[in-house]
Amino acid sequence: MTHIREACACGIYGSIVAAGFHRGIEWHTHKSHLYGVNGYMQIPEGHPWSDLSYQEIDAEKWVKDEPEFDGGAWELTFKNGAWIGFDTQHAWDSWPDMSFPWRPDGTEPYDTQWTPELVAVNARRWCDLIAEAGDAL
To answer: 3 CB contacts (<8 Å, ≥6 apart)?
Structure first.
């Protein structure tokens, strides 16, 4: 894990858990300030999503089948310049370091049991979508 005091290229302050390139798209995962890890992907220059806000980027519009994301990863919650991202602290998401690993009614575990590796998988799934949306033009 790399500890940084200044913002990363994606605009996030904090520890990079993993980073790489998938289909030519750069991605990072960063430790959240709450708990768990979040995912970030860079939109290439000239891409059709470049001028959109994160709220305007609809994953379902760009894929033929249902997006195969875990938990709330399909819902973007961040954009800073060319970087978009998703968080893993949605309702019914859980992390091993959470102090409340069961639903409030105590009857079932949360729907998505996140791990840093699963966040990286979902970041690469977003890279696939970014590449496919860029190829669609």
So the answer is: 15
